[in-house]
Amino acid sequence: MAQTKLVVTCKVCGTEFELPEDVMDGEITSCPTCGARYIVKLAGGKAVLEEFKGDVEDYGE
Ligand SMILES: [Zn+2]
């Protein structure tokens, strides 16, 4: 089965980075360069980034 690479572009710094192929719709990801957080939206075999507005990850500190 051919896997399409899920490459997305950070809206903040423009870095292109690849998502894991098992990434799930609604998963939180962050830019490896600037750390901006996004929600991954999967649609039609491709991934798009949606700005992360929540505060789910407060317990990381
Ligand atoms: Zn970035």
Concise summary:
The protein has a single domain (6-55), classed as Rubrerythrin, domain 2 (Single Sheet), CATH 2.20.28.160. It has strands spanning 6-9, 16-19, 28-30, 37-43, 46-51.
Give a description of the structure:
There is one protein chain. The strands form 2 sheets. A 3-stranded antiparallel beta sheet has the order 3-4-5, with no helix packed on it. A two-stranded antiparallel sheet has the order 1-2. The protein has one domain: Rubrerythrin, domain 2. The radius of gyration is 12 Å and the shape is globular. It is built from no helices and 5 strands. It is mainly β and 61 residues long. The model has no long low-confidence stretch (mean pLDDT 87). Helix content is 0%, strand content 39%. It binds zinc ion. The site of zinc ion (ZN) has 8 residues, from loops.
Task: Write out key terms for the chains shown.
61 residues, mainly beta, Rubrerythrin, domain 2, three-stranded antiparallel β-sheet, two-stranded antiparallel ribbon, 5 strands, globular, binds zinc ion, Alpha-aminoadipate/glutamate carrier protein LysW
